[in-house]
Amino acid sequence: MNAPLVRSLEARYYTDPAIFAQEIAGLLSRTWQLAGHRAQIPNAGDYFAFEIAGQNLFCIRGQDDVIRCFYNVCQHRAHELVSGTGNTRVVVCPYHAWTYELTGGLRAAPNSKSVPGFDRSAICLTEARCEDFNGFLFVNLDPHTAPMDEWFPGVREELAEYVPNIDLLAPLEWVEIPENCNWKVSVENYSECYHCSLNHPTFAEGVVKPETYDIQPSDKGYVLRHTTECQNLENMTYPIDMSVEHAGEYRSWFLWPMVSFQCYPGNVLNTYHWRVRDVDHCTVYRGWYTEGGAESDVIRALAVQDRKTTVEEDIHLVESVYRGLKSRGYRPGPLVLDPGCGVNSEHSIERLQAWMKEAVDG
After folding, report:
1. CATH number of the 37-140 domain
2. Which helix (H) or strand (E) holds 250?
C-alpha cells in the first residue's frame, strides 16, 4: 500500500502576519544568523552595524583582538550608539555622551559622580552570542543557544576541505537583492533544483551538470547539502584550475534558516544570506570572496553573470509564487518525493517545510 502523499504547506505559513510576528519573536531570535565577515573589522575599534530579527546590533573588535557583538542601544536612555561602519577608540553615545569601553563596560557618564550610589561598574552594553565560523561572523540572540558546530555538524570542516584558502578570504563584492515575497518562499526556491533546467539555462549549462545534482538533508543538525559535478570544461562560463582537489565539483551547505555557503567549481566561495523586512518582503545578499579581498576579473565577471541570470530569474519565480500563495484558488499540491532523490526530487523541501512548521506549531 502506498504511503500518503506529502503536501506542501498551507499558504498561511507564508502570508499570515501573525505567523511572521511569531517567527521574529521565536525562530529568528533563536537561530544563528550571518552578520558579516571578520575581514570587515581588521583593526581594534573597527565596527559595523546591522539588523537581525528587528534588533539593531553591531560587531566591534576590541583592543584584546576579540570580536564582540552588542545590541546597538545606550543603557542610559536608549539612543542608538553607532551606524554603518567605522573605527572608534571608545563607543560614545551621541545623545548624552555616555562612553563605553570596547568590551562594553561603561567608562564615563557626564555628571554621574554627583549621583549618590551611581555604580559605573554595574552598567554594561548588552552582549549577543557571536561566533567566528571560518571567518564569517554569526550572531544568535538566544544567550543559551548551542554552539554552531552542534547546529551544523561537520560543516566547518567540510568548508575548509572544499575551500582550502578559506581563512585567507575577504569579501570582494556584496550584491543586494530586494524580493517582494516572504523569506521562506525565497529560501525554498534556493533549496531545490527541480526548477533549474527550465529556468536557469546559464547555471545549468555553463556551471553545473543538472543530471548529477542532488540535495540531501542532514541526519544530524539543520543542514541541507547540495552536490553536483561541474559542466564539461568547454562549456564552463569561466576558467577553473582542475589541479586543485574538488575543483570539478559544486557544493552548497544551507544552514537553517537563512544562510548558505556555496563552493562553485574551481573552489570559488560565495554566499547567500537572507534578511527579513516584513511578511511580504525580504532581502537576499550574495557575497563573493577572494584572498584578502584582492581584485579578480573572474570573480567580478561571475558576480555579474550570476546577478543577470540566476538571481534575476529567481526574482521573477519567487515573486510569482508569492502572488500565487495569496490566490483563493491555491490548494497545496503533493511534493515530488523521488525515493532515489536526485535533481527532480523535493526531499529538501519536505525537510525545510517540517522545520518551518515546527518553528510555528512546536
Report:
1. 2.102.10.10
2. strand 249-255
Q: How far is CA 295 from CA 136, 165, 298, 301, in A?
A: 20, 16, 9, 11
CA distance linking residue 141 with residue 139, whole number of Å: 7
Other Cβ atoms within 10 Å of 18 Cβ, number: 10
Distance CA 80, CA 77 (A): 9
Q: What's the grid cell of residue 174? A: 556584496
Q: How far apart are CA 138 and CA 32, in angstroms?
A: 6
Q: Report d(CA 299, CA 307) in Å as an integer.
A: 12
> Cell numbers of 24, please?
521574529
Distance of alpha carbon 224 from alpha carbon 227, whole angstroms: 10
Domain definitions of the chain by residue range: 37-140, 154-361
| Cα–Cα distance list, 348 to 50, 224, 342, 353, 356 (Å) | 30, 7, 10, 9, 12
- CATH code that applies to domain 154-361: 3.90.380.10
Give the pLDDT confidence of 246-296 residue by residue, as tens digits: 988 999 999 999 999 999 898 999 999 999 999 999 999 999 999 999 999
Torsion of CA 27, 254, 151, 216, to 10 degrees: 120
Residue 356 CA to residue 345 CA, distance in Å, equals 19
Write the pLDDT tens digit of every residue in 117-148: 999 999 999 999 999 999 999 999 999 999 99
